[in-house]
Amino acid sequence: MSTAERLLTPAYQPDFSGATVLITGGAAGIGRCLTLSFAQAGAQVILADRDQEAGEETLAILSEQGLQAHFIQTDLSDQAQIVQLAQQTRALAPSGLSILIHNAAIANAHSANLFSEDPAAFDQVLAVNLAAPFHLTRLLKESLVQAGGCVIDLASTRAYQSEPQSEGYAASKGGMVALTHAMAISLGEQGIRVNAIAPGWIDTTEWQKGRPGPAHWPDEEHRQHPAGRIGRPADIAAACFFLASPDAGFITGQTLVIDGGMSRKMIYR
Ligand SMILES: NC(=O)c1ccc[n+]([C@@H]2O[C@H](COP(=O)([O-])OP(=O)(O)OC[C@H]3O[C@@H](n4cnc5c(N)ncnc54)[C@H](O)[C@@H]3O)[C@@H](O)[C@H]2O)c1
C-alpha cells in the first residue's frame, strides 16, 4: 500500500470548489490531513506553516494525487509575518476567504509549565496558540465578510481537564474556547460563524514530516476510549467539512469535542 493510500481522509467528500481555505500549521499533523482533505474536496487551499521542508513535502503529496495548494512559509509568533500572510491570502482570494482554520500550535502540552526553566516559554505558547489566531482573524475579517466565510479554531480537551505540568498549553486552549465565542458574537452580525473543535488524542504519526508509516498502539490504548479507538486526523477533517458547510449555518460560538468519549468517562481507581 502506498503512503498516499494510507493517508486517510474523510469518507464523505463534499464539494468545496470555488471556496478558498487558509489552514495554519497545514504542513504536518492534523493540518496536513486538512490540507489534503480540502484540496480533494475542490477548494483552493492556502497552507501557512513555519516548516518549509514539511510544507514542500505536503505539496509533493498533493501533487501525487494531481492536486495543488499554495504554501506560504510563516512563523506565526512574528507579528510582521502574520501581516504578510494576511496580505498574501487576500491576493490569492480576491473574492474573499471562505474558511479560516486556526490549526497551528506549539502542540507539546508540557512545553510551558510551572516548572519550566525558561520563563519566556509561556508567552511563546500563548503567542502562537492564542494571539496569532486573534490577529489573523482581525486582519482577514473583511475578506471573510466578502465571501460569507467562517472560522474554525483548533482547541483541545485540555481546555477542560489537565495532566500535571501543562499550564501554558491548557491556558492557550482554554483561551481558544473563549476567543471562539467572543469572535462569534462580534462577527455574527456580519454573517461570519466562528466555531471550535476540541480534539482528544489524535494519532498524527503518519502525517508527520518524513512520511513515517502508521503507528501501532497496544489494544488497551484503543479500548480505553468509549468509541473503541484512538482518533485520526480524518475525524477532525470531517468535522471541519461539516462546520464549514451550509448545514452548520445555525451553529456558531460552539466547541465540538471530538475525543472518542474520553472526557465523558468517569475514572476512579
Ligand atoms: N494531535 C492531538 O492529539 C491533538 C489533540 C488536541 C488538540 N490538538 C490541536 O490540533 C492542532 C494540530 O495538532 P497536531 O497534533 O497536528 O500538531 P503538530 O505539532 O503535528 O502540527 C502543528 C503544525 O503547526 C506548525 N507550527 C507550529 N508552530 C508554528 C508557528 N510558530 N508558525 C507556523 N506554524 C507553526 C508546525 O510546524 C506543524 O506543521 C493544534 O492546534 C493542537 O493543539 C491536537
How are helices and strands ordered from N to C?
HEHEHEHEHEHEHHE
Quote the beta fraction. 5-15%
CATH topology: Rossmann fold
Helix fraction, binned, reads: 40-55%
The Rg value, from CA coordinates, equals: 18 Å
The CATH architecture assignment turns out to be: 3-Layer(aba) Sandwich
Q: Order of strands side by side in the largest beta sheet?
A: 3-2-1-4-5-6-7
User: How many helices in DSSP terms?
Assistant: 8
CATH class: Alpha Beta
The low-pLDDT segments are 1-5
Category by helix and strand content: alpha/beta
Judging from the principal axes of the Cα atoms, what is the shape? globular
Describe this protein's structure.
With 269 residues, the protein is of the alpha/beta class. The protein has 8 helices and 7 strands. It has a 7-stranded parallel β-sheet, sandwiched between helices. Helix 4 (79-92) runs parallel beside helix 5. The structure holds nicotinamide-adenine-dinucleotide. Nicotinamide-adenine-dinucleotide binds next to helix 2. Residues 25, 27-31, 49-51, 54, 74-77, 103-107, 128, 154, 156, 199, 201-202, 204 line the site of nicotinamide-adenine-dinucleotide.
Compact overview of the structure:
The chain has 269 residues and is α/β, with parallel strands linked by helices.
Fold topology:
Layout: H1 3-6, E1 20-24, H2 30-40, E2 44-49, H3 52-64, E3 70-73, H4 79-92, E4 99-102, H5 120-147, E5 150-154, H6 167-187, E6 193-199, H7 219-223, H8 233-244, E7 255-258
Parallel strand pairs: 1-2, 1-4, 2-3, 4-5, 5-6, 6-7
Bound molecules: nicotinamide-adenine-dinucleotide.
